[in-house]
Specification:
The chain is an all-beta fold. The protein is about 5% helix and about 45% strand. The protein is built from two helices and 22 strands. A four-stranded antiparallel beta sheet has the order 1-2-3-4, with no helix packed on it. The longest helix is centred in the first third of the chain and has 4 residues. It is globular and about 55 Å long. The N terminus is likely disordered.
Amino acid sequence: AEAGNGAASSETPESRNADGNKKSKAAANPEIVSFSRSPMKPYIVTFTAEKKSLPAMLKLFRENDLNQPIASKTFFRAENVKYVWNPEGTRLLVTAHTEVDATGKSYYGESRVYYMSCQDSMAYRISLERDGQVHEAKWIGDGNDFVVIYGFMPACVAIFNRKAALKYNLVDAAYRNTAEMSPDKKHLCLGGFGNLVGDVDFWDLSSTKKLSSAAAAHTTYCQWLPTGNLMLTATLSPRLRVDNGFLIWTTDGKVIFKLDCEELFKVVPRPIAWQVAKSITVDTSKGSRTNHCHLCHVMQN
């Protein structure tokens, strides 16, 4: 079962409520193809795919009442969805996607973003200024704002507030499809990975200032280290069989650590709370190995 971490589940919700009572209509509905629970609050959202002339549907429930949704939204052209809850578990972004673009404009299908609020019992589609695929939709900062990267390349990077109103376009046109928020909520990394060349930008969100840009070619994985000021990028097998390894970057775009591997299967930041990790002294001079690997778990051949 998936519980609010952004990945859709192929299971249906439990057939009993949290108190063990009998099946609810919503939980027993065989048409529900995925669901997600709030990570912090007693809410659950379900997705029903479209069927024949019937539209797809998102429904938001309180967990103690799976018969009556507090908000819902119907729409067509959706085969699967991705859920992203805010840190408090009271609002979520749902990216709906279909493999085929009915207009024929995009080889990668169609996608759109929906906003749902548990507190306000609202659900509606986010209005975007351009056509094209939604590449990323994530909460940023303290979870009151979110970023959406969308449109035909070069894409637009837009910042929205907690009411899903556009605040500003951070970038009007860039070859970027990935956004990662630092653990200290101060920095945003924008990357262009996958079928893009691998460039990254580091932004200071408080001043909306771009701190640096860098080339991280062949990146298949990226994640902030728990210190909040260092970014890990990696090229992993079996996604890519050559040039495996990982790098650690500062927000001014400098590589301070590099490890080449014949085969690198996984590297992830150690699960250290930011409040603890920020007290770790890290030597940011180029080539230093001090402390860097103590911040990561590495699995290599």
